[in-house]
Write a structure and sequence with these properties.
The complex is a heterodimer of chains A (about 110) and B (about 250). With about 110 residues, chain A is of the alpha+beta class. Chain A has two helices and six strands; from the N terminus they run αβαβββββ. In chain A, the strands form two sheets. Chain A has a three-stranded mixed β-sheet with strand order 2-1-6, with helices on one face. Chain B has one domain: Rossmann fold (3-Layer(aba) Sandwich). Classes of the chains: A alpha+beta (about 110), B alpha/beta (about 250). Strand 6 of chain A pairs antiparallel with strand 2 of chain B. Bound molecules: guanosine-5'-diphosphate, magnesium ion and zinc ion (ZN).
């Protein structure tokens, strides 16, 4: 639900890194969004067009990589893949799971000229 | 202007990896690898808030719930009932209006409104600046009423000691299963509006069971801001945590 502020953050970072690296144009930006981050990738893609307008990131391609959710069951201690917002251990049915992966939202790389 | 949060500075916490010149089709492009957590800035500011609160021994609580669960009502009751015993300050997160802040101001407790506009959560930056309005040395407990939303505030650490979820009995007992991240992040769940139980189908035991399934260590207090039932247990919890923070 906070895709807008997150996307502003992405554009801000992209422009900062581009300037620091003396780039003249940004071709693409790659971000990773975890399945359990509560962030909807489509909404980020949509917000990106709005947020990048008038900045160096305007027209850049946004690549969004999805990271699967992984949790560890606190009862049977086994790891399994988690779907967004449904934390049930598929191996033993317990609901007490510790999230191992999938909550991240990362700016990973960009391609510049 | 703002040294602590470096409002205009470069992202400091990122480590930048090798910046190598790839030669793609155009011949001029290169790839910059970055690996920066988009929440890193918030986490850094939250850590700085937490250090500040620790230095003056303030207990900071982050109240989250769906809209209308009774966060502001709970604050009104708590601030009046504990007036003279505990000194509070309140940050009110709200999308647009100042209604909640006005309700708190009526109790005589210092309150600062944080309008998030389109934002669906408070972040550590807003809180860091928000508390500048208060005399922190003279404050015992900082109450932060977050925006009514059980999804986004789970991701944004504010520097609080505890997240508290307020859940009202009009909401359905399966809320903990629908918003597990938030219930997992909480140290205390307050089940509010129990005065309404006789009129509803709400299964209180089932709700507590779901909550514990998602978060086995969480504390649960049932209460009503209207009838006052259960409030004494909540006040005991507050004093206990406050004393623990002072120690
Ligand atoms: N019956 C009943 N109503 C309550 C209780 N606590 C709050 N309310 C009502 O719930 C509504 C929303 O409360 P409010 O404090 O504004 O919720 P917030 O959005 O979480 O801040 C108001 O009409 C309150 O009067 C309670 O314990 N019992
Ligand atoms: Mg309110
Ligand atoms: Zn299991």
């Amino acid at each position: 639900m906070h895709e807008l502020s997150l996307t502003q953050n992405i554009v801000e970072l992209a422009v900062q890194y581009a300037n620091r690296n003396n780039a003249v144009a940004i071709r693409s930006i790659t971000v990773e969004i975890g399945a359990l981050s509560g962030v909807v990738a489509d909404a980020v893609a949509f917000a990106f067009d709005v947020c990048s307008k008038g900045t160096m990131a305007e027209g850049a391609r946004l690549d969004i990589r999805r990271i699967a959710g992984v949790g560890r069951c606190l009862r049977c201690l086994r790891e399994s893949q988690l779907e967004a917002l449904t934390h049930v251990c598929p191996l033993c049915g317990s609901l007490a799971l510790e999230t191992m992966q999938g909550q991240e939202m990362k700016f990973t790389e960009m391609e510049v000229d | 202007m703002c040294i602590d949060c470096g409002c205009n500075s470069h992202p400091g916490s990122a480590h930048q990896h090798d910046q190598h010149g790839h030669h793609h089709d155009g011949g001029t492009s290169r790839t910059i690898r970055i690996e920066e957590d988009l929440l890193a800035k918030n986490n850094r500011l939250a850590a700085s808030n937490r250090a500040r609160f620790r230095a003056v021994k303030i207990l900071a609580l982050n109240l989250v719930s769906s809209p209308g669960s009774g966060k502001t009502s709970l604050l009104e009751r708590t601030l009046s009932d504990l007036a003279g015993r505990i000194t509070f300050a309140v940050l009110e997160g709200d999308l647009q209006t100042t209604n909640d802040a006005d309700r708190i101001a009526a109790t005589g407790v210092p309150v600062k409104q944080l309008n998030t506009g389109a934002g669906c959560h408070l972040d550590a930056h807003m809180v860091g600046h928000g508390v500048e309005a208060f005399d922190l040395e003279a404050t015992d407990i900082l109450m932060i009423e977050n925006v009514g939303n059980l999804v986004c505030p789970a991701a944004f650490d504010l520097g609080e000691d505890h997240k508290i979820v307020v859940l009202s009995v009009t909401e359905g007992e399966d809320k903990p299963l629908k918003y597990p991240q938030m219930f997992q992040a909480a140290d205390l769940v307050l089940i509010n509006k129990i005065d309404l139980l006789p009129y509803l189908q709400f299964n209180l035991e089932q709700c507590k069971e779901f909550t514990r399934q998602v978060n086995p260590l969480v504390e649960i207090i049932e209460l009503s801001c209207h009838s006052g039932e259960g409030l004494a247990t909540w006040y005991d919890w507050l004093s206990r945590e406050f004393i623990r923070k002072r120690a």
